[in-house]
Design brief:
alpha/beta, Rossmann fold, Helicase, Ruva Protein, domain 3, Zinc Finger, Delta Prime, domain 3, 5-stranded parallel β-sheet, two-stranded antiparallel sheet, 53% helix, elongated, disordered N terminus
Length: 336
């Protein structure tokens, strides 16, 4: 047993610790917006605990939006039946009322030696008392399930495909993301369907994905702006034709803002400005993205885009079809 000042931390008894010298902790926080990662971690934890005894008699599952702290603590203090350990799982723990979260914090000051408390959250800020209480049990107590960054998602899809016994081409993965969106549970489900339908040893290709996957994802504005910044006309047209909920007026406004950002970055780089992120009041990673995109344009091209955007907006408001006007502006801006 170790006293860290605010919370008492201990390891399980020797019989529990004997499992590969990797003892279970009394609490785990499984937090992050990636649903598939959370589900995978929970499955693995349940499988591991099931090696100690039958989970049918030794587990309770609570919903954070409905459960009380008293109920959860009572379950955690219940002794296991014909097992060395039991599991208490709290889904959506980030939706617990403050008083109920405080009850868990008090419990964690001296938790049961025969219970694993699994707290699952979409997002639990690090500055909350509950997060700090869990993190006091060590770095392994908090399991990060943050979503993949956009630049890593294609590779993640191809890796997920391997678990279903197939390989994906890069184009197939990109098309699946376009059609199904970025939710990893949805992606995994679609990959499973594609794997069942696929024949032969060749990788699943883009045509198979387009033929078998229905569009369920709305194109995000940032996806379009990334393609616009990279001056990828064909990609912009492809995405634009699928952006049914975004009005042309909103989209041209976003594009004009991106053009202004690219002009600012080019101008500051030309002047040898040091900390561009500080000057523009944006994150350093955004500066890197803008610098990469700005290299696709000359300054005259960006100024031309800004000037012709005004004409396009005027034409939209003067009776011309807004979608056609915006498409013509894309072609003029990105085709140069």
């Amino acid at each position: 047993m170790t006293n860290t000042g605010k919370f008492v931390i201990f390891r399980y008894n020797s019989s529990m610790a004997s499992k590969k010298n990797n003892p279970l902790l009394p609490v785990y926080l499984i937090s992050g917006e990636d649903e598939l990662k959370r589900e995978t971690v929970v499955k693995r934890l349940r499988k591991r605990i099931s090696t100690y005894g039958d989970l049918a008699f030794n587990s309770d599952v609570f919903a954070g939006e409905k459960a009380t702290g008293e109920e959860i603590v009572a379950a955690a203090n219940t002794l296991p039946f014909a097992s060395e350990v039991r599991l208490v799982q709290v889904n959506n723990v980030d939706k617990l009322r403050k008083a109920d979260a405080e009850a868990l914090i008090s419990y964690l000051a001296s938790p049961s030696q025969t219970t694993v408390l699994a707290l699952i959250a979409q997002k639990l800020p690090k500055n909350t008392r509950l997060y700090k209480a869990v993190s006091g049990f060590g770095k392994d107590a908090v399991i990060d399930c943050a979503p993949f960054q956009a630049k890593d998602l294609n590779a993640a899809v191809r890796s997920m495909a391997l678990t279903h016994g197939v390989t994906f081409t890069e184009g197939a993965a990109a098309s699946l993301i376009d059609l199904a969106g970025t939710n990893t549970v949805t992606l995994d489900s679609e990959i499973r369907k594609l794997a069942l339908a696929h024949r032969g040893d060749d990788p699943v290709n883009q045509n198979e994905v387009i033929a078998l996957v229905a569009r369920t994802a709305e194109i995000k504005p940032w996806e379009f702006l990334d393609a616009f910044g990279m001056k990828n006309l064909s990609r912009c047209i492809y995405l634009y034709n699928r952006m049914e909920k975004m009005s042309p007026y909103q989209l041209i406004s976003l594009c004009v803002s991106r053009v202004r950002d690219l002009i600012s970055v080019r101008a500051l780089n030309a002047r040898g400005a040091g900390n561009i992120a500080s000057v523009l009041g944006i994150q350093p990673w955004r500066v890197k993205t803008l610098e990469k995109q700005a290299r696709n344009y000359t300054m005259p091209q960006l100024i031309h885009a800004l000037s012709t955007a005004q004409d396009a907006e005027l034409a939209m408001k003067s009776g011309s079809d807004p979608r056609d006007v915006l498409l013509d502006w894309f072609i003029d801006t990105l085709g140069r």
